[in-house]
Amino acid sequence: MPAASAESQRSGQFHAVAAGFLGWTLDAFDFFVVVFLYDTLAHQFGVDKSRIIFTTTATLAMRPIGAIVFGLLADRYGRRIPLMINVIFFSVIELLCGFSPNFTFFLVMRALYGIGMGGEWGVGASLAMEAAPKRWRGVLSGILQSGYSVGFFLAALVSWLVLPTLGWRWMFWLGGIPALLTLYIRSSVPESEAWLQHRAPSTGAVIRIVAREWKRLAYLVLLMVFMMCLSHGTQDLYPDFLRTAHHAGASGVATVTMLFNVGAICGAILFGTISQRYGRRLGMIGALVVSLLVLPLWAFGGSLAMLAVGSFLMQVGVQGAWGVIPVHLNEMSNDATRGVVPGLAYQLGILFAAPTPYVEYALRDRIGYQWALAAFEVVTIVVLMVTIALGTERRGRSFVDEPSVLETADAPHAG
Q1: Residue 291: which domain range?
Q2: What share of the chain is helix, strand, coil (3-state, %, to 5)?
Q3: What predicted TM-score, i.e. pTM, was given to this entire model?
Q4: Which among 230, 220, 232 is positioned nearest to 330, based on CA atoms?
Q5: What is the pLDDT of residues 64-97, one digit of tens each?
């Protein structure tokens, strides 16, 4: 391959992964803003805090719609344009949340936001993983997924700096910034070569392939249900847990949240890298063992400092397992349905796991906040380890048919 061509390919790979990472970072920021506003919004709209918490459930429950719509578009028309449309959509909805005059309007906006959030991950992950060199997929998968934790970190930082000075509406208005990402995607990100080679001739063909491989999809959905219970069960209510059960102030909550997201970033990259050498399933199980071992410190730490350490280590394990998910789901998917299947499995998982924060909050009234979080996550981690152990993997499979690149450049075929 000529030097100029190789350099162009490397540049395209970098921009594709960067676009996926930035999209997921900004999407996660827009989601987690609400986590720091439960009490503020309940007071603003004159409703019980449980109703504000329910808006996160509404967001999560609507995500499969976005996965289907944008995933099918990505498999039929390419990764770039659907990703740009998606980013503009969720940015505009987030902006409108800041203009909410009442709870009903806010609830509708958060549900619509779920559609945008549901579409971003699948399209962005397929674009990034198809561009990533096989030997770097594990670590780049971890970097890509760590965008979720970076977004959470930024939401915590903004809640600390912006909320006390400018108010809650500005936290949503800042969520309109991601729309600028479309300019970067349009100017710098090339279309996926894997899609060009394996695109299906019609949307109906994509749907038929998905239906034919329903058993694999069902397993991936089951896996993602418990992965969602793991992440949302350890993150969504934790700032509220620190605030109400341990009387931590705003700065303390923000500091611990930012700290455990640093742990999450480290874990995602570490275990993503481990999975490249020892396999996807072993990498995920190893991360889950870490979470199980530190769970007592995470839930029952006697001081804010101990809880901070426990939450840091917990998220090393939680997001360590998650760091393997982008590459694992993409490797498990058919070439012609990689735009829709990973995202659909991911978002159907969240559909069934959407009540997680609501269930944990309800359990709090029966057995206390500490035991509610701990009991829920012990069951989740054990079941998840068994599910992963009984599954399969396709580590290192090729997404691009290299010998036929020149032959098929002008005549893409169905996978």
Answers
A1: 9-199+213-395
A2: 85, 0, 15
A3: 0.81
A4: 220
A5: 898 889 888 888 888 888 888 888 888 888 889 8
